[in-house]
Design goal:
It is a single chain. The chain is built from eight helices and 17 strands. By secondary structure, the protein is α+β, with helices and mostly antiparallel strands. The strands form two sheets. Strands 8, 9, 10, 11, 12, 13, 14, 15 and 16 form a nine-stranded mixed sheet that branches. It folds into two domains: about 120 residues, Aminotransferase class 4, branched-chain amino acid transferase, N-terminal domain (D-amino Acid Aminotransferase, Chain A, domain 1); about 150 residues, D-amino Acid Aminotransferase, Chain A, domain 2, CATH 3.20.10.
Amino acid sequence: MTRIIWMDGVIVDWDDAKIHILTHSFHYGTAVFEGIRCYNAAQGLTIFRLDDHIQRLIDSCKIYSMKLTYSAEQIKKAVLETVKINGSENYYVRPIVYYGYGKMGVNPLPNKVCMAVAAWIWDESTYTNHGGGIRAIVSSWTRIDGRSLPVLAKATANYANSVLARIEAINQGYDEAVLLNSYGRVAEASAENVFIVKDDRLITPPLTAGALRGITRDSILTLARDIGLESSISDFGREDLYLADEIFLCGTAAGIKPVIEIDHRIVSGGKVGGLTKRLSNKFQDVIEGKDNKYSRMWLTPIR
């Protein structure tokens, strides 16, 4: 199997894709990235919501004042080329923009802004699928907010917060952690957006709570409207998680992950809830190319 990485316009063998030990982003977290999914759909290998992911990458660069030298079309071409050369697999694709080797110190501006694109088979081994769902805790770590770091940017620095929360959950025998913001409201999980179902109504936190502007999150809200589910973007707290009829997480790597236990409280009788199943089935139809409306809109074929 061919394994390559795209680095600033050059196709590099997987084992040769290296950076200097003094690369600025390695020391100071000055990088932004995207997570994009490829799926083997009815139409062949496709990429899910590629244009939206590229725009979010560009937005992240703007927030961090990174002078990206590639246009949206050039980034799209790089992603498509990387996936095509690597072969027909359900890849996770990682475009990353970073300050390269040069001047050290907290001012990154003298350094070159570099870009790379990698693709690999994602193995999300954290999820142990207890009865079709996962077990989670509410983390003791507080979710960062916009007064500390820009949460709308998908920046590597933000994920140190996520790493601490995930390690805490795993060390306690759980699969995942949900983080609260400094006001005690639910923000997101360590690497996913959070949804609850209460009285047949779908609820997810607003971006102002500290949630990432998730593309899978947006897809779920769109699909929920299509199948007639009432939904809202509203603040809610820890106790609302305990009283929810259903809970699920969603993200590019995770897909849709039902939560069947939170802080020792059983959710939905320890089984995947009915509305979660409906949304999962609808989402699966889309990514498999079986939904004529959204498959045409959201799937980019690899030619």
